[in-house]
Specification:
heterodimer, A: 170 residues, mainly alpha, globular, B: 109 residues, Helix Hairpins, 4 helices, elongated, NUOK/Mnh_C1-like (chain B), translocase (chain B)
Amino acid sequence: MSLDILFYILGGLTIGTALMVVLSKHPVRSVLYLVLTFFLISANYVLMNAQFIAIVNIIVYAGAIMVLFLFVLMLLNLNKENEPKHSPLMTIGAAVAGGGLFLVVVAAMREAILAAPMIDANSEQVGLVENLGKVLFTKYVLPFEVSSILFLAAMVGAVLLAKKEKQTIE
Amino acid sequence: MLLATLFESGVKIEHYMVLATALFVIGVFGVLYRKNAIILLMCIELMLNAVNLLLVAFSTYFGQADGQLFVFFIMVVAAAEATVGLSILVLLYRNTRSTDIRLFNKLKN
């Protein structure tokens, strides 16, 4: 089936762009690769029939959060190449730690025993807005309201951090 | 229709587990390897997205909506975290004129 090939192409591209985020020297290029990674992850969500999460992922991550990162990058003017040289010991250490973590987690997952997938007529509708909204506003209505308080706290914190500097200038 | 063909076409849930693990490990590697604080925050976003991918995969696999709502809440927390983290970073940059994390090891000077 062609979905098989589509998954491998998407997965390979996702891992490739994620690696480029880490390895590219230029911070702006890194941000743009991260936007590409988010779009590819959204494509993976569409492949899994989770349309709502795919759209929210594009709007929130590729839209809002990445614009925030780009704004800060432009504000700090890090465009010039001032990244210090890495020591080779640190590079080897990071690679060994990451590779070791990957091997351990994959080895642990090979032992995992999973239940059979539950695919019926209802499971096609799971990722749609109607079904997610029903569950969100009945079962998860309290976390939903608490998250609004979290946003308020984050907003107050960001304003406070920006305002404090202004007072010291005056 | 699409879903049934996806899981019967040879793509197993294990494939998604390996893909999410690879993305998470790339994020961990980036946090250990890079010295720029903005790239570090981006690697944290990458790790959060790896977890999101696995949550959506299992949510689809078991036909339950709960996993996708957890992804929704993770996105909320990630947005708040990025806002506060970046504003702290701007303040640190005003003090040190750099985003090198090795300069931030002394918070009190």
